[in-house]
Amino acid sequence: MSGTFVGMPAFPEAARDAVRDTTLRGNLRHATHTIRAKRAKAVAELEDWARLREAGRQIKDRTLRRLDHYLVQLEEAVTAAGGTVHWAADADEANRIVAGLVRATGEREVVKVKSMATQEIGLNEALAAEGIAAYETDLAELIVQLGDDRPSHILVPAIHRNRGEIRDIFARTMSEWGRPAPDGLTDTPAELAEAARLHLREKFLRAKVGISGANFMVAETGTLVVVESEGNGRMCLTLPETLISVVGIEKLVPTWRDLEVFLQTLPRSSTAERMNPYTSMWTGTRDGLTGEGDGPRAFHLVLLDNGRSDTLADEVGRQALRCIRCSACLNVCPVYERAGGHAYGSVYPGPIGAILSPQLRGTASEIDASLPYASSLCGACYDVCPVAIDIPEVLVHLRERVVQGGPVTRRGAKVTLRPAKGHAAERAAMRAAAFAFTRPGTLAAGQRLAARTRRFHPRRLPGPGRAWSDSRELPKVPAEPFRDWWLRTRGGKDAEK
Amino acid sequence: MRVALFLTCVNDTLYPDTGRAVVKLLERLGVDVDFPAGQTCCGQAHYNTGYRHRAEPLARHFAEVFAGYDAVVTPSGSCGAMVRELYPRMGARARAEGRGTSLTSALAPVVPKTYELTEFLVDVLGVTDVDAYYPHRVTYHPTCHGLRSLGLGERPTRLLAQVKGLDLVELPGADECCGFGGTFSVKNPDVSAAMGLDKVRAAESTGAGVLCAADNSCLMHIGGTLARLDSAMRPVHLAEILASTEEEQLV
Asked: CA of A259, closest CA in chain B: separation in Å?
């Protein structure tokens, strides 16, 4: 397995293998059902959950409406606190900025806090191309990195691995990256965690450069916030001399006080905890004159757009930018549970990925055009979303974009998308159905034809119809449609009125 | 009160028994129900597959056909949700696209008077005991759009609980989607089938002989899976159970 998503097949093909992989299905079912139940319990504890959810939605919407204003305010606050702000329009620019900053320190290695933004831009690969080694320090990201694998979940990137697989990865590959796994390593969680702890400790103590993302940025103070469980983040944020944070521009909140909402909803939604173990907040650098206090001597904030402004321009799709990356939608999604995270062809899998990737990357590729259809529209994701993103609404909106084309914003310019290829037969069928459904006589004639020929209907369909009949019997067409029965038995009723 | 049955295109074409059951049930409860012959399809499949503009004339047609009635009753959670949740949204989108308020004002009258069957029974007629008799062990699957879009809550199970002879057993993981999802069932057949199989296994584990739901589209998928597996369990629409009496038993 390679570490990137280039050349992914469309979702249905990618999902097919996952559905048949019984180990993967078992791992995912166990993990998602466990955390799903825990989340429900943690959320039910709060009487004001519905109001917290609505507050989170409104804070995010208000911020997004005036994002330009708050970003400038943030830049001023970060600069005043001794940090330097860089603006990156896309992944390449962000990677160039970060690589340049690391090179300027003279270092050849960095330690990383778990970060979706740096996964999104492929930072590790870009740094490797510059001869810089980036070490993931989150336990699950470490498993993914050591296994030359891809993350399959936002919060639990190695959710597709079980303990035995993790033991094998550690035993086989830790020595290539640093301190080897202890001899005779078993698959007990305590031993696996200890092996990772020892392996990572030497990296924490040696590293001069740390790289992070952030869960939140506070515009009024210039403060960045990382919420985590393992403490590896705190090590990376405080020990290195230089800290570089790559953060999506939508991670802003206007005021410190706004955090009170999200610091309640995020942990309960993601890990089902009342409070996460480590919340690290930092504002600029340690005192520049005296060199006293904690934290880095140099702090760089790279603000990442990479399709976010284009997404913001779409009035239905922009709600995806409210996302706080909690993963509750993945854990509750019946499609994610069976297809697994890799099928989504992005670091953002599951329902949120299905609406985020086709907006951030566009719908030109096969995988991105198929993602809006990777849902039965059951609505479980919307129910659990702590910022009330109506994921089914955005999915349907993006389906429309795929089959009908229409106006979108790409790289800041308004363009009109052409309808995607490969939907011609479906378009024709929809047109024909719409024709018949606005003419009751035509519909009735079709129903009668189906009823009269019902003895000749095959049990299994050829061609595209096999998608149904490979796993399900077809419904039997009745001898007469309801409307004919009604006409036959109650024919005069309409006439009397 | 002039009550119209909106049977839905799927039921009209493939499940006329459900239509007859609704008529029988409503007439037994003293409701004078009509079936306007001009009715066709609410446009849900178009809308959900990305053909919103094609769904608009169907929505307008729906509004015209049912204009003269005080209440529109449908035995489908998803078609009910289409009218109640998505028709207003279609109007709002048309407005946002600079096409004025004509769609919104055309659809507005039918939206609040459209009821899913169990809503009509429990909220409008105020009944939960409909004098039904159905001596079978039944498990109930709450379909997604009825559960989450319309918020049917306990209405269906309250109705089932009052049916004489009926042994209602809880379905494990009831609120999980069966995997139908309209065109999802053919666009993502492997995942859809896997979800259907898990739903069927959960239903079979209850020992019930009947899997009941209030939406025949989902039952078509679940029932098709049951039939392929040669399962003894039968899919039955809620209306058919509620229509069944000691005198006229549904088999």
From this structure: 29
